[in-house]
Design goal:
By secondary structure, the chain is mostly helical. It has helices at 3-6, 14-22, 26-44, 57-100, 113-116. The radius of gyration is 19 Å and the shape is flat. It starts with a helix and ends in a 5-residue tail after the last helix.
Length: 121
């Protein structure tokens, strides 16, 4: 490699990236995406260290809906061993959303409840 080449950005190795993704089991992809959705929802619920600074219930609702859809659809594919903690986390976020709302949704109308059914504390 010459000095002129050193300043040039390297093109991504898409073949290697594709092989790397192909080696990741589906259960790992599903659980990783679910954890990212949970984390983002928690931040938008104001549960992060800087709490209210990042609170956005509209964004939290969207993330919890997406999480509920993923967990509900993926549960049979990833086994109860992996699905149970995701369901617990989802329920905790749904309850936190209800608590954070000035006017709570009717039972069955909260985020993700079209997938999970009504959530009660």
């Amino acid at each position: 490699m010459s000095d002129a080449d050193a300043g040039q950005p390297q093109a991504p190795d898409f073949d290697r990236m594709t092989r790397d993704i192909a080696d990741v089991p589906a259960v790992e992809v599903i659980t990783t995406v679910a954890v990212h959705l949970m984390s983002a929802a928690a931040v938008n619920l104001g549960l992060a260290e800087e709490g209210p600074q990042h609170k956005d219930l509209d964004e939290a609702r969207k993330l919890i809906n997406a999480l509920a859809g993923l967990v509900t659809a993926g549960a049979t594919e990833i086994s109860s061993f992996h699905a149970a903690p995701l369901r617990d986390g989802l329920k905790s976020l749904q309850l936190a959303f209800r608590e954070a709302s000035v006017v709570p949704d009717e039972p069955g109308q909260g985020p993700g409840e079209k997938f999970t059914g009504p959530i009660f504390g």
